Amino acid sequence: SDDDRQRKMLTEIRNAVIDGEELHQALYRNDIFPQTVVALLVVGYEAGHLEEMCAKAGDICEEDVRVALDAATAMVEPLLM
Q1: How much is the pLDDT for 68?
Q2: Among 16, 32, 41, 63, which residue is least crowded by beta carbons within 10 Å?
Q3: Strand, helix or coil at 12?
Q4: For the chain, how far is it from start to end, CA to CA, in angstroms?
Q5: DSSP secondary structure of 15-81
């Protein structure tokens, strides 16, 4: 299932970081996060502002979900009428 796949990828990322690999390198190898998010994390890490970029990435993901939900609602709404 997707949950098992995501859990496995997150475990792989965690283990890679524990073994000394850079976070962004481990993230690039897996497709669990959008490349935009990974790119923001790389920039934040290299600039020493990882916390701020994590917050920005969270905002972007939140906006993407909102847009997707609005689109789905717009498609379903006529059926409910």
Answers
A1: 93
A2: 63
A3: helix
A4: 34
A5: HHHHTT--HHHHHHHS-SS-HHHHHHHHHHHHHT-HHHHHHHHHHHHHHHHHHHHHHHHHHHHHHH-
